[in-house]
Amino acid sequence: ITGENFDQSPLRRTFKSKVLAHYPQNIEWNPFDQDAVNMLCMPKGLSFRTQADNRDPQLHSFIITREDGSRTYGFVLTFYEEVTSKQICTAMQTLYQMHNAEQYSSVCASSSCSMDSLASSIDEGDATSLAKLQRYNSYDISRDTLYVSKCICLITPLPFMQACKKFLIQLYKAVTSQQPPPLPLESYIHNILYEVPLPPPGRSLKFYGVYEPIICQRPGPNELPLSDYPLREVFELLGLENLVQVFTCVLLEMQILLYSQ
């Protein structure tokens, strides 16, 4: 457990994550920073869900800026897969038993009652809150299916967001599909790592993902730098008034801090 959230129910806690594998193992000009990638891929840590929770895959991106000012871009797809380890499921059940016992004692203490006279001493409001507490975020190993977060990430020298996003979504579909893709998954990963070149400045590149072709375009020397992030999302997230204010601050060379979850 990453700490700080022991008061939360076990399904709302976050746990320590780790990098399971990365390819290629190392590149001289771009060494793999395991700690940074691990933290940026799962900034909140590992999380668990059950079949009752929303488990839609989510995409996000990050930038690693080195001391010399060089940048590496990461694009991450986070999804949930079923926990097959009986040991982990049992541990989650135990965490819930401990958590419920603590909450039970807490409600009892706040009502100034003994364990034996809980039913008669607890008022209706506390009894209702206790019942809700036991139903909300509950986990029963015999009834519920446990899922854990996992992510796949592409790290690139340039921010080809749309191309990376499309490839990760296609790869995820191939992993979760009942029907396997035409070729083994390893061949698609090998292709994008070793056979798809970086497009020359001012040129477009078309390569094949798992199911559909993917196109990426690199600006020429006299064009604006590559900005593959959809501008519409900025308007949706910040709103017109806030965006105008941020743009004004940029023109006035003011310091800007964007804070979010």
TrEMBL record:
Superkingdom, natural source: Eukaryota
Describe the location of the UDENN domain by residue ranges. 1-261
PROSITE patterns assigned: DENN
Keyword match Protein biosynthesis: no
Q: Name one Pfam family in it.
A: uDENN
Record key words, sorted: Guanine-nucleotide releasing factor
Query: For this protein, what is any one GO molecular function term?
Result: small GTPase binding
Report what the protein is called. DEN5B protein
Native organism: Crotophaga sulcirostris
